[in-house]
Automatic annotation (TrEMBL):
Cross-referenced SUPFAM superfamilies: Class II aaRS ABD-related, Class II aaRS and biotin synthetases
Entry GO CC: cytosol
Keyword Nucleotide-binding among UniProt keywords: yes
PROSITE patterns the record matches: AA_TRNA_LIGASE_II (PS50862)
Domain of life, source organism: Archaea
One Pfam family here: HGTP_anticodon
Domain Aminoacyl-transfer RNA synthetases class-II family profile, residue spans: 43-334
This enzyme's EC code(s): 6.1.1.15
GO molecular function, one term: ATP binding
Gene3D superfamilies tied to this protein: Anticodon-binding domain, Bira Bifunctional Protein, Domain 2
Record protein name field: proline--tRNA ligase
Organism: Haloferax profundi
Length: 418
């Protein structure tokens, strides 16, 4: 993409936010607020969010998930049947349509998935199945901490269906492992916390919580790499405290704050029972379908990545073995976009993929402004075409951390490829 042809929304004026991460997201031009608890994503922000979603979808597909799309706008009937109408912690948006029928904006989709499969899942041979979607959810929550608690947000939600509890246990573990791989791939530091089921119901659940400086819950966690032991102030388990020895690895537990980025539930028959969703078994009997429910907060992941990795110059997006979610993989920064330098910059733009690179061709920007904007966006590589290129023909390739190497123009695409 050419800097002269994209709208970046970067801003010097972003004061007044209670939260440093939201302030940076606004300053980097990733989001704009649309009133309390509502955010829109700009082209740069949407590029990051799209890359996060692709990472999640790849893992869900890899474990056998099938993508679906359920309506956000729903009639009362299925919520009345499950017993959650008017009983969703007062967070459900409800209203009447023009015909006086009660409707809602779905805060979750357990009822929806039961309705989707009703009549098509009938035999033990029709399960196990895992369905997922990436969709907007609506909850009339008290807005807090910018992107962490909003009235409309994007979630990847998934639901599994089973004939037996053993099958539910097996798939619960499978999705749990996939979640660990997703967060590792994105470069998010996280722990796993035993959690209450509250509004979802069911027999067991665990939260994935990212340790951060400013989060939405109190967290006591083990700092040992990949140990992942933690408890929050909402956990049933209150036996662990800061300074205690970690029960798993023997390390020391620390106190901090956390952001809930994912949640997995064994729902059992909480939703299949009231809907009469059953399967016939091999011995001729009938039993209610066992269900699991699995969620990842997509917007929260963007917030968490900024929170865990940003520095004084702006966003930083981790570069892991499988790539990065940065809005652009490479910034091409010519000293002046003119003459042979401009030709070389164009060549590099083509070689590295126009869609994934940002070419600073805008004549109104100084070199300093180009560097600052690239760092604010968190672009992991800058290819600088200046005096060194004129003299030697090598491009100065700089990481977001400031490490520099000199690389032949033809080799740049290999070095920075995701
Ligand atoms: Zn530990």
């Amino acid at each position: 993409m050419r800097r002269s042809e994209v709208t970046l929304f970067t801003s010097r004026e972003s004061e007044g936010w209670e939260n440093d991460t939201v302030q940076l997201a606004v300053r980097a031009g990733l989001v704009r607020q649309f009133g309390s608890g509502l955010f829109g994503f700009t082209p740069s922000g949407q590029r990051v969010r799209r890359n996060v979603v692709r990472t999640i979808e790849a893992e869900m597909d890899a474990i056998g998930g099938q993508a679906v799309s359920l309506p956000s706008l729903q009639h009362k009937a299925i919520w009345k049947q499950s017993g959650r109408w008017g009983n969703f912690e007062d967070e459900m948006f409800t209203f009447e349509n023009r015909d006086g029928q009660a409707m809602c904006l779905a805060p979750s989709h357990e009822e929806g998935i039961v309705h989707l499969v009703d009549g098509f899942v009938r035999s033990y041979e029709d399960v196990p199945r895992l369905f997922y979607q990436v969709a907007r959810k609506h909850r009339d929550d008290h807005p807090r901490n910018g992107l962490l608690r909003t009235k409309e947000f994007t979630m990847k939600d998934a639901y599994s269906l089973h004939a037996t509890e053993e099958s539910l246990d097996e798939w619960y573990a499978r999705v749990r492992d996939a979640y660990c791989r997703i967060f590792d791939t994105l470069g998010i530091d996280f722990v796993v916390v035993d959690a209450e089921n509250s509004v979802m119901g069911g027999s067991a659940s665990e939260e994935f919580v990212a340790p951060v400086e400013t989060g939405s819950s109190e967290l006591v966690f083990c700092e040992t790499d990949r140990c992942r032991v933690g408890v929050t102030d909402e956990s049933d388990d209150t036996s662990l405290a800061a300074g205690d020895t970690c029960p798993v690895c023997g390390g020391t537990l620390t106190a901090g704050e956390g952001i809930e980025i994912g949640h997995v539930f064994k729902l059992g028959t909480r939703y299949s029972d009231p809907a009469g969703l059953t399967v016939d078994t091999a011995d001729g009997s009938t039993r209610p379908v066992q269900m699991g429910s699995y969620g990842i907060g997509v917007d929260r992941l963007v917030h968490t990545l900024i929170e865990q990795h940003a520095d004084g110059d702006g966003c930083q997006w981790p570069v892991t073995a499988t790539g990065t979610v940065a809005p652009y993989a490479l910034a091409i920064v010519p000293l002046d976009y003119d003459g042979e330098i401009a030709q070389a910059a164009d060549r590099l733009h083509d070689a590295c993929g126009r869609e994934e690179t940002l070419l600073f061709d805008d004549p109104d920007q100084t070199i300093g402004e180009r560097f600052a904007e690239s760092d604010l966006l968190g672009i992991p590589w800058k290819a600088v075409l200046g005096n060194n290129f004129r003299e030697t023909g090598d491009v100065e390739l700089e990481t977001r951390d400031g490490d520099t190497q000199f690389v032949e123009l033809e080799q740049i695409a290999d070095v920075v490829s995701r």
